[in-house]
Specification:
about 15% helix; single chain
Length: about 70
């Protein structure tokens, strides 16, 4: 799954690294990115909206144990 994503930097949200799906112009949060990187750029922190959406994609609620919901 790591090859399906790249890291990106947006001029609209300086200081955050966005997770960008392959073939998309923006991060999982919906913001467009202006530069892409194969590894997370330093020092930006990971965009929290991208991180939450990634968790939702990898661990869908339909497969979560009932105790977690």
């Amino acid at each position: 799954m790591s090859g399906d994503f790249a890291w990106g930097i947006s001029e609209f949200h300086i200081g955050r690294a966005h997770l960008v799906p392959a073939g998309m112009a923006g991060g999982l949060c919906g913001l467009p990115v202006h530069a892409r990187y194969p590894a997370r750029p330093e020092p930006p922190t990971v965009c929290p909206e991208c991180a939450l959406e990634f968790v939702r994609l990898v661990f869908p609620a339909a497969t979560a144990p009932a105790a977690w919901l």
